[in-house]
Specification:
alpha+beta; 6 strands; about 15% strand; elongated
Length: about 170
Amino acid sequence: MSGRILDGETVVRLVVNGEERRAIAEPRLLLSDFLRHELGLTGTHVGCEQGVCGACTVRVDGRPVRSCLLFAVQADGCRVETVEGLAPGEELHPLQRAFQRHHALQCGYCTSGFLLASLDLLEREPDPDEATIRAHLAGNVCRCTGYQTIVAAVVAAAAELRGEARA
């Protein structure tokens, strides 16, 4: 799928975090760069630019993708969710609260990718065990936390989302 070409440039139209957005993109512009530089959504981080670290994870049509491996024109017409859309207004999403409560972030660079990957897991599996969480998040790299606090945060968020616990 590609956007409409206007004076030699491509107009990319997306629904980002529930809001219709459009901007001009060169055909080779990565979705991560489009989100950050054209739409001003800087929560999507760019780490390795090879799809290995997971810092650039967003959801496209409900599925997690590495936005550094997808051209913006390939996402034309799609629904894109970024970390900025995780929670409406000033209230944090249960995952964000759990990450904060369990100190599951240190430098914060990888956090947006972990949050969106964790959201995907909890929508598929509302009561995951630690092994399932670790397997699902294996594609995301954190150089600061040692992962145990991230796993604990996902377990806590899952319980809260099931109505078993409250922040």
